[in-house]
Amino acid sequence: STLNMFRSFYPKDHSLQFALLEGDSTDSTFEHVRNFADVVVKKDTHKPQFPSERSIERAVHLAQLRNLLTQTAVEHTSPDYIFWHDSHYMSNHRLLEELLDYLSFPEIDIIAPLALDSPNSFYDSWSYRDLNNREFTKQPPFSESIRNKENNLVEVLSVGSVFLAKSEIWKRGARFGNTDNEKFLFHKNAKDLGYRVWLHTGLVTYHI
């Protein structure tokens, strides 16, 4: 499983704890994750329907769930870092280890990989925005901010559903929120608090 994979390849000098949100299952999912994860939040949503993927109602709903899980995890585990990874992504087994290396840089507070459907198709393009608040595009080069970059690190305004962040950002008040993209507000909050958000164009997670 993805969780076992991250656990197996996580640096041995760090402690890795899992916090999972589970809801609306009709099988043994809850019992299974409860035996595996350090923190499990049970929240049935009754599968609400929304007019579009970018509706405010959907963003508010998802923000509440994301904030609930993160707050519970912070209260129960006191982490130094939070690795947010939505369940509909598949990542390389060394992604977390590679991202963690970059948080030792003083200018990097949040870092994320590219989020693709395929090598030439960006999935989470509307969550990723450059420093001028322009959304990434579905097709290469995805953003002018990464065209012809000499290195893989690009400072951005926001990233998507897979990222590593210093937990102090959450503790200082950054939250997922009620824009048409709940993830954007977390990263915008972080920027407003003086933190910097980065994209690593040499690392990729795939939507499945």
Task: Describe this protein's structure.
With 208 residues, the protein is α+β, with helices and mostly antiparallel strands. It is built from 6 helices and 9 strands. The strands form 2 sheets. Strands 3, 4, 5, 6, 7, 8 and 9 form a 7-stranded mixed beta sheet that branches. It has a two-stranded parallel sheet with strand order 1-2. β1 (19-22), α2 and β2 form a beta-alpha-beta unit. The radius of gyration is 17 Å and the shape is globular.
Question: What attributes characterize this protein structure?
Answer:
two-stranded parallel ribbon, alpha+beta, 7-stranded mixed β-sheet, 9 strands, 208 residues
Explain the layout of strands and helices.
Blueprint: H1 2-9, E1 19-22, H2 29-36, E2 39-42, H3 56-77, E3 81-85, E4 89-91, H4 95-102, E5 110-118, E6 121-122, E7 153-156, E8 162-166, H5 167-171, H6 182-192, E9 197-207
